[in-house]
Amino acid sequence: MTEMPAYEVEKILGRFLDRVEKGEDIVITRRGKPVARVAPLRETPDKTAALAVSERLLASRAATLDGITLRELIDEGRR
């Protein structure tokens, strides 16, 4: 990840956006402190794929791990 002062970003915005578009994450700093991170936009998942994952999760609710249900594992983790 790259760090870059805000005043540098203002001077080279076009080249900056080219780097981000190519996949680079850049942290913008002000007086040496990180204030923002600019990253390329990622494609949103296909709705069909998301539905398939949710169906698998719902189906797994009935599954057990050595007789312990998913709900019991979740509740145990909250303690």
Provide a concise account of the structure shown.
This protein is an alpha+beta fold. The chain is 47% helix and 24% strand. The protein folds into 2 domains: 37 residues, YefM-like fold (3-Layer(aba) Sandwich), CATH 3.40.1620.10; 31 residues, no CATH class.
Can you put this structure into words, describing what you see?
With 79 residues, the chain is α+β, with helices and mostly antiparallel strands. The chain has 2 domains: 2-38, 3-Layer(aba) Sandwich (YefM-like fold), CATH 3.40.1620.10; 47-77, no CATH class. It is 47% helix and 24% strand. The protein has 4 helices and 5 strands, in the order E-H-H-E-E-H-E-E-H. A hairpin with a 2-residue loop joins strand 4 and strand 5 (68-69). The longest helix has 14 residues, at 47-60. The two termini are 36 Å apart. The model has no long low-confidence stretch (mean pLDDT 80).
